Amino acid sequence: MGCTNSKVQPDEKQSDQLDKYLRQAGKEALLDFRILLLGAGESGKSTVVKQLKSIYKIQVDEEELESYAINIHKNTVLCMQVLLENGENLKIELNDPETKKRAINVKTFQFEADVKQMPVSLGLDIEELWKDEDIQKIWERRSEYWFLDATPYYFENIQRFLEDDFRPTEEDCIMTRVRTSGISVTEFDEGPVHFRVVDVGGQRNERKKWIHCFDDVKALLFVVNLAGYDQVMFEDPSQNRMQESLTLFGQICNNPIFADTPTFLVLNKKDLFEQMIQKTDLSKCFPDYKGGSDVKVALDFIQSKYQQKIQDPNKPLHCFFIAARYKKDIKYTWEEVKGILLEDNKKVLQKANKELKKSKNKQEKLDAANGANTTTAKING
Ligand SMILES: Nc1nc2c(ncn2[C@@H]2O[C@H](COP(=O)(O)OP(=O)(O)OP(=O)(O)O)[C@@H](O)[C@H]2O)c(=O)[nH]1
Ligand SMILES: [Mg+2]
């Protein structure tokens, strides 16, 4: 952020201009809080960012909305193609002749470069396929292959997606999956603090880029997909997602660069976890688990597994169990994170206020000595 944001309107009073400029300068120089989101692929990092943008009223523009609409169509087709391909691998027969025909239509469909929507007939095929009992048998065995968590959401809302004037709702945007590649930064101000939230791609081939954002981190948010205890990875379907996440957390939290960085463990997708734990025992991932299907017992156990990864016994770990798809969960988490950060940075905040006061006094003295015009020159220069 340069001086552009600090430039003033000609009709503003000079003292207001100075005040504004100094406030801005204070933000830039002293209260820049960089928050780093890390975690394996599909843990929900970008979903957290989408919710923060909504909380801070950062508008989704028309171009972005159109890209969500295109991606939601692509995600929907991909999800059915994934089911059909894995049905074949698992040797699950499609018995109904109509279902077989529809399956061929979906399997052979490819989006042309400039096509933005699936054809309505294809959407209707997908809707019917989802109701078929053999397709449901494939879905029941989803722990054996990679799939997108939002699969049922896409199929249940397909009628709406197929409408001519379809515009994604806020919930559609949250549920759209777009893999992050590289590093993206979202910025917003609150009081005297300028937040920069850094989101990275979490898949294995993306992680070599992480090192570029390890400096000057005010807080580390490590995001975990709780449902990953019974899921396999996209990059390596022989690897359990939660085991991968635990290993990754061990590497990150013990990295000397984060020795003094406040660390928050965001255990995400609680909604999926609560359903999953009723069907699949946690011992499938952790053979030493003996707590049965009690949600709280299971969550505490998972938290302890992450806690045990931290080698420094004095390093605190702040934990949250949330579903990032719900804005209220992110609101709550963000308030807690901010509270802890502002408390930890009390001294910096006080120092910032002092510096602000000092530079204001200095500027006022300069103004008195040189005449008011200098102020304008300085601000605009
Ligand atoms: N059911 C459910 N789905 C969620 C939740 N949070 C995120 N998702 C979905 O999980 C998928 C992956 O989320 P992303 O935010 O793209 O994951 P990511 O960590 O940014 O993934 P990479 O960019 O590959 O690192 C998306 O389809 C989200 O809609 C949640 O709390 N519940
Ligand atoms: Mg992402």
Automatic annotation (TrEMBL):
Source organism's superkingdom? Eukaryota
GO MF annotation: an example:
G protein-coupled receptor binding
Which stretches are tagged as biased composition: Polar residues?
A: 371-381
Give one Pfam hit by family name: G-alpha
Q: Which GO annotations describe the biological process of this protein?
A: adenylate cyclase-modulating G protein-coupled receptor signaling pathway; G protein-coupled chemorepellent receptor signaling pathway; negative regulation of asexual reproduction; positive regulation of cell-cell adhesion; positive regulation of cell-substrate adhesion; positive regulation of sporulation; regulation of cell differentiation
Q: Which residues bind GTP?
A: 42-47, 199-203, 268-271, 324
Stored Gene3D superfamilies: GI Alpha 1, domain 2-like (1.10.400.10), P-loop containing nucleotide triphosphate hydrolases (3.40.50.300)
- What InterPro entries does this protein map onto? Gprotein_alpha_su (IPR001019), GproteinA_insert (IPR011025), P-loop_NTPase (IPR027417)
Q: Which residues bind Mg(2+)?
A: S46, T180
What assembly does the database describe for this protein? Answer: G proteins are composed of 3 units; alpha, beta and gamma. The alpha chain contains the guanine nucleotide binding site.
**What family name appears in the similarity comment?**
Belongs to the G-alpha family.
Stated name of the protein = Guanine nucleotide-binding protein alpha-8 subunit
Q: What is the lineage of its organism?
A: Eukaryota, Amoebozoa, Evosea, Eumycetozoa, Dictyostelia
State the gene name recorded for this protein: gpaH
